[in-house]
Amino acid sequence: VERIEEQLASLRIAKRSTLSKEPAYLLDIDVSKPAQSESSRFVAVSCSNKSIRVYNRETLNFLREYSSRPGILNGVRFAHACDSVVFSACSDGTVKCWDIRLATQKAVQVFSGYPSNVFISFDINCNDLIICAGTEKVDKDTFLVFWDARGITNCASGTKEPLGVYAESHNDDITKICFHPIEPNLVVSGSTDGLVNVFDINEDNEDDALISTCNSDSSVSFIGWSGKNYKQVYCLTHDEGFCWWDIAQLDTEEPITLLHVLDVRDTVCVGNDSLHYLVGGLYHEKADKLFLVGGTSTGSIHLMSCGTDGLSPLGTLCGGHSATVRSFCWNLTDESLLTGGEDAQLLLWKPGAVERSLAKKASMKIASSVQKRVRIHNSSLKSRKK
C-alpha cells in the first residue's frame, strides 16, 4: 500500500482532451484491452449528450463519435479479444456494437431486447461470449437479458435476439452489472431495490443460477469484484454507503459481510478537504487491496483504501477538474489514471508527468450562454482599445 501511496502522490496531469463543440458530462470510461505485444490503444467515453466518444489512449486525440439519438447510451465496454470493438447499452431496448476501424456511424451489430425493455446497465463476460443487460422497472417487471455475443470480432452485421432472461431476482431498476474478471460464468447485478445478486449462468434456470443475495439496504450505484481470485463482491450506494462481502464464506459458519459503512462521508476524514461523493472502486491485484475513489464538487479526487477495520484516506488529486468527477479508469500496467467529469474534461494522469498544455483550467468549465456572450464582448473591447 505504501508503494501505491507513493504512486498516487506522484500522479500528475499528462494529457487533457480538447473540449468538443458540444460539451457534455463524461459518465463512464473504458480502455481497450491490449493485445499481447502492445498497450491499450483506445479510450471510449459515454457522454450525457447521448453519444460515445473514442480517443487515442496516449494522446487523448479525438477519433470517433457514435450517437444513439433518440435513445440514451448507458455505459461503455470494449471487447476483451478485439480492441477495436466497443459496446454500449441503449434506452431503446438494444445493446449496440461499433467497430472503430470502420468509418461508418452505424452500429455493426445490434442486440435487441424485448419490446418494453429500457436498458440502463450492461457488461460483456471475460471471454466475449455473453452480453448481459439490466432494465428499468416497467410495470412490475425488471429483467436481466442475455445474448450470445459470438461473432462480434468479425462483426457480422445484423440484429441478435436474446438467449433468455432472469426476471425474478430483482424488483426494481437494475443499475449495475459486472461479470467476473476471470470466471466467464459468474455475474453480479445491483439494483435500486438494494440487492446485490451473484449468478452462475451455467445453471439451467434462474433459481439454480442465483448463488447469493446480499442486501446493501440502499440503492446500488456501483458494484465490483475483489480479493484473491476475486471471491469478494462490493458495492457503493446512491447515498454514499459502502458494502463488502466474501462470497467464499457462503458455505461456512463465518459471516460473509466484511464491512458495511452507511455513509462514507461521515467516516473518512480527508484533511482540509471534504468528501462529497463516491465514484467507484478498484481492486489492485498486485497489492491485494481494494481502493475506493471519491471526490468533491469542485473537482478534487480522493483515493481511499479498504480494510475489514474500515476505510482510510490515501491521498488527493487536485487542480485537474473544476467540477464533479463522474468516471475513472485506472490502468494497473502503467499505473496511469483516466478521469472524466461534469466539466466535460477527460484527463490522463501519470506518475511524474508534466502537462505541456498552457490552457487555463478555469476556461475548461462548461460556459453558459451568458458567459459565452460576455467573453466575446470582452475580446472585442480589447481589440478596439488597440
Report on this structure.
The structure is a single chain. With 386 residues, the protein is mainly β. It has one domain (1-351): YVTN repeat-like/Quinoprotein amine dehydrogenase (Methylamine Dehydrogenase, Chain H, 7 Propeller). The chain has helices spanning 2-9, 206-209, 264-267, 369-385; strands at 11-16, 26-31, 42-47, 51-56, 62-67, 73-78, 85-90, 94-99, 109-112, 119-124, 130-135, 144-148, 159-160, 164-166, 174-179, 186-191, 195-200, 210-215, 220-226, 232-237, 242-246, 257-261, 277-284, 289-295, 301-307, 310-317, 325-331, 336-341, 346-351. The strands form 7 sheets. Strands 6-7-8-9-13 form a 5-stranded mixed beta sheet, with no helix packed on it. The radius of gyration is 21 Å and the shape is globular. The N and C termini lie far apart (57 Å). Residues 358-386 have low confidence and may be disordered. Keywords: Repeat, WD repeat. InterPro entries: WD40/YVTN_repeat-like_dom_sf, WD40_repeat_dom_sf, WD40_rpt, WDR89. Pfam families: WD40 (PF00400). WD repeats lie at residues 167-209, 318-350. This is WD repeat-containing protein 89.
Give the helix/strand layout.
Blueprint: H1 2-9, E1 11-16, E2 26-31, E3 42-47, E4 51-56, E5 62-67, E6 73-78, E7 85-90, E8 94-99, E9 109-112, E10 119-124, E11 130-135, E12 144-148, E13 159-160, E14 164-166, E15 174-179, E16 186-191, E17 195-200, H2 206-209, E18 210-215, E19 220-226, E20 232-237, E21 242-246, E22 257-261, H3 264-267, E23 277-284, E24 289-295, E25 301-307, E26 310-317, E27 325-331, E28 336-341, E29 346-351, H4 369-385
Parallel strand pairs: 9-13
Antiparallel strand pairs: 1-29, 2-3, 3-4, 4-5, 6-7, 7-8, 8-9, 10-11, 11-12, 12-14, 15-16, 16-17, 17-18, 19-20, 20-21, 21-22, 23-24, 24-25, 25-26, 27-28, 28-29
